[in-house]
C-alpha cells in the first residue's frame, strides 16, 4: 500500500524550520500564487500541523497539486471512489492496517485525503494517455490472463521447503490445508496484490504442479523476506489475439504510465504552467525544479523530433521531385 501523499520529493523536517527564512512575514503572506488561488504562510502551518513529519517541500507540492487537480478533476473523484479505494487497501493489509497508518503518520481521515490526492493525479495522467494499437501490443507482450492457484506464504525458507515436500507427498492434504487457509487466488499479470516474483513463477507451472523451490520475496519497506509456495490449479494460454483482453491491457497501460516518472512529471509541468504557479520566497524557489526540468527536456526532445521530421520531409520532397523528373513510377 502506498502510504504517501501526492508529491515526488520527500524531505524530512517541519515546515517551521524552512519558514525561518520568512520570519518577518505575517500569516497572510503569500508563499505560492496561482491562477484562481493562493497558498499563504497560515495555510502551510495548518498543513504542517496535520502532517508534522512531512517536509516543507512535499507539503507545498501537495497543496499546490491538490488545488490544481481539484479544480480540474474534483467532480470525477467522488467520495464513493475514495471510500472504495480506502476499504480495498484496508482489507488488503488486514490487521496490519492500523499499524501501517500509524507508522506513516496518518489517521484514517488524513489517509483518505491522501487517497483523494492520488486519485486526482491518476485522473490527470489517464486523460493524457493515448491508447494506440502499438501500446496495446506492447502491453500484450508481458500480459498473462487470469489463473487459479494456491499461494501460501511462510516466514522461513525451511518451512517453505517442508511444505513443498509435503505437497508432493500428499496433494490431497496440501489442498485441504490451502483451502482452510483460504489460499486460493485468481490473478492475472495486472494484479498488484500478488508479488511479481510469485506471478512469474506461477506462469511456468502446469495444472496441478507445485513450485519446485520456495519463491523468496523481500519487503521493500522492511527488508524482511517471505517465502511462497505455489500450486497451480488452472493455468491459461493467452493465445495471439490481444483484442480479447483489451480491457485488461488498458488497465496495464494506465498502471505503466502512472508509474512512469517522466510521463507524470511532464503532465504536472503543463498544469504548473497553465495555472501560472509562482513561488514567492527564495527559500522555496526550487521546489518545482524537477518538473520544470522535465518540461524543458520534453520540449527539447519534441523540437528535435519535429526538426528531424521536417528535415526528413524536405529530403523526401526533394527526392520525390528528382524522381518525378526521371520516372513517374519511381515517384510513386
From TrEMBL:
It is an enzyme of class 5 (isomerase). One of its GO terms (biological process) is protein folding. Keywords: Cell membrane, Isomerase, Lipoprotein, Membrane, Palmitate, Rotamase, Signal. Its EC number is 5.2.1.8. The keyword Isomerase applies. Residues 1-20 form the signal peptide. Plays a major role in protein secretion by helping the post-translocational extracellular folding of several secreted proteins. Belongs to the PrsA family. This is Foldase protein PrsA. It comes from Pseudolactococcus insecticola.
Amino acid at each position: 500500500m502506498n502510504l504517501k501523499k501526492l508529491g515526488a520529493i520527500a524531505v524530512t523536517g517541519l515546515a517551521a524550520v524552512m519558514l525561518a527564512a520568512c520570519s518577518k512575514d505575517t500569516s497572510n503572506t503569500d508563499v505560492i500564487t496561482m491562477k484562481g488561488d493562493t497558498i499563504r504562510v497560515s495555510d502551510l502551518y495548518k498543513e504542517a500541523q496535520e502532517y508534522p513529519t512531512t517536509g516543507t517541500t512535499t507539503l507545498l507540492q501537495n497543496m499546490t497539486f491538490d488545488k490544481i487537480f481539484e479544480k480540474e478533476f474534483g467532480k470525477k473523484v467522488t467520495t464513493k471512489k475514495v471510500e472504495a479505494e480506502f476499504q480495498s487497501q484496508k482489507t488488503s493489509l488486514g490487521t496490519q492496517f492500523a499499524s501501517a497508518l500509524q507508522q506513516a503518520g496518518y489517521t484514517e481521515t488524513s489517509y483518505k485525503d491522501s487517497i483523494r490526492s492520488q486519485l486526482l493525479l491518476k485522473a490527470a495522467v489517464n486523460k493524457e494517455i493515448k491508447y494506440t494499437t502499438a501500446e496495446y501490443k506492447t502491453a500484450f507482450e508481458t500480459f498473462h490472463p487470469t489463473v487459479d492457484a494456491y499461494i501460501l506464504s511462510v516466514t522461513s525458507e525451511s518451512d517453505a521447503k517442508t511444505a513443498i515436500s509435503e505437497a508432493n507427498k500428499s496433494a490431497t492434504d496440501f489442498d485441504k490445508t490451502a483451502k482452510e487457509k483460504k489460499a486460493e487466488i485468481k490473478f492475472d499479470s495486472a494484479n498488484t496484490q500478488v508479488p511479481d516474483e510469485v506471478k512469474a513463477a506461477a506462469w511456468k507451472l502446469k495444472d496441478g504442479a507445485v513450485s519446485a523451490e520456495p519463491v523468496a520475496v523481500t519487503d521493500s519497506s522492511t527488508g524482511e523476506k517471505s517465502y511462497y509456495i505455489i500450486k497451480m490449479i488452472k493455468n491459461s494460454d493467452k493465445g495471439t489475439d490481444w483484442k480479447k483482453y483489451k480491457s485488461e491491457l488498458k488497465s496495464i497501460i494506465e498502471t505503466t504510465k502512472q508509474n512512469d516518472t517522466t510521463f507524470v512529471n511532464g503532465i504536472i509541468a503543463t498544469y504548473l504552467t497553465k495555472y501560472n504557479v509562482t513561488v514567492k520566497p527564495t527559500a522555496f524557489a526550487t521546489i518545482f525544479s524537477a518538473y520544470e526540468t522535465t518540461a524543458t527536456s520534453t520540449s527539447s526532445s519534441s523540437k528535435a523530433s519535429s526538426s528531424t521530421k521536417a528535415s526528413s520531409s524536405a529530403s523526401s520532397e526533394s527526392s520525390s521531385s528528382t524522381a518525378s523528373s526521371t520516372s513517374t513510377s519511381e515517384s510513386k
